[in-house]
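idk why but the lab printer keeps eating my pages so im just putting this in chat instead. protein + uridine-diphosphate-N-acetylglucosamine:
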Amino acid sequence: MSIALIVLAAGKGTRMQSDLPKVLHRIAHAPMLWHALRAGSALAPERTVVVAGHGADLVETSALEYDPEMRVVLQEEQLGTAHAVAQARPALDGFEGDAIVLYGDTPFISEATLNAMAEARRKHDIVVLGFEAADPARYGRLVTEGDDLLRIVEFKDATEEERALTLCNSGVVAADAQTMFELIEAVGNANASGEYYLTDIPGIARARGLSATVVRCPEAETLGVNSRADLAAAEAAFQARARAELLDLGVTLPAPETVHLAWDTVIGRDSEIEQNVVFGPQVTVESGARIRAFSHLEGCHVSRGAIVGPYARLRPGAELGEDVHVGNFVEVKNAILHEGVKANHLTYLGDAEIGRKTNIGAGTITCNYDGVFKHKTTIGEGAFIGSDTMLVAPVTIGDGAMTGSGSTITEDVPAGALALSRAPQQVKPGMATKLMNMLRSRKAKGQ
Ligand code: UD1
Ligand code: MG
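predcted complex ->
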């Protein structure tokens, strides 16, 4: 069965108090919309249509960044959820199969739930995703009889008796695409909101002799985001789930509640992530690596057996080979550190490639930026960079070469050579004592 996803993302999100369209607010470093799209991708959709409205240009850019094949359609006026789905019709021209409607602001529907909906579609024409709400509040209510969904009633239009129902509408619905569009044609807007409700279609379907049913999911999956407080709650829910998944995969987290993960963080089993580690987007950590406390990682790869931190910063393009050690207050950006490199203290390595087993002394800096251009530093294998070396790029240090502590290296250093560039030391016996005595006597005279 071919599947098309229709993701509704036209709403303004007034309660977010924001200039940014609601679905572009981020959870774990990805727009909410991407979470919804990723959830839907579990069904391997043949086509995906995003219905944009408020901030459509921004929403379109974001959707295409997620998947350039995406179709984005415009709902110029937000006349209701049925009207929103109808906007996707031209983009699904010629499509045969099921349409599943997801909401851009309901990011956490699980794969298992979507599969259960697909399964239920074998027996019923319309499948609606419902949940037992702890506090049904203003959700649409599902009126059922056994397995059958008779109709959905919106809170505003519901009787007292209907409002007492706790089985609520998540908004997610699946049906044959052409059937869904035909049913939507029959939806009117004579209701309390004057909107075209997608929720009218089960009732219309039944009147036409079609069947409708409900698949239930845990309430946490239907968690919608309408305010900054909801966004914070969604972030917390995401983090809790992602940490639990890592623990299940065999990653050691001595204080899981202090580790912040991104939506796409990948960590291999038998790794250890210590307290207060923060992951930005696009990080992969191989098995058996150790990320020590208070480190910050984004856009980087850490290989097996590497040790990072405490207090390390890995920025985009940091590529750490096996058994590399990167210690406290070391920043690595766009740099490849091959197997066994050690850079343990107070160092900046940017736009660099460093060969196997090279040791980088404390306080080393690759001076990669001249104010306009970035330049590369290349260091060979088994080299020894003395503490406090300034490597003024572009510069190349050969295999097995050394630089003396405190050197400013502006010229290439051949393999096996020692480069020194520092003023020769002078020693003046007794001079320190003499100088201090002079200064103290001046102070005593009030000079
Ligand atoms: C909707 C459901 C309600 C359900 C609730 C779950 C309807 C009529 N009601 O109500 O039964 O319990 O979701 O959260 O469907 N949108 C558009 N264009 C529009 C209107 C909405 O794209 O013209 C999008 C919104 O951006 C949002 C989603 O559709 O992502 C739901 O719209 P919203 O206005 O939040 O519907 P609710 O009143 O919450
Ligand atoms: Mg809503």
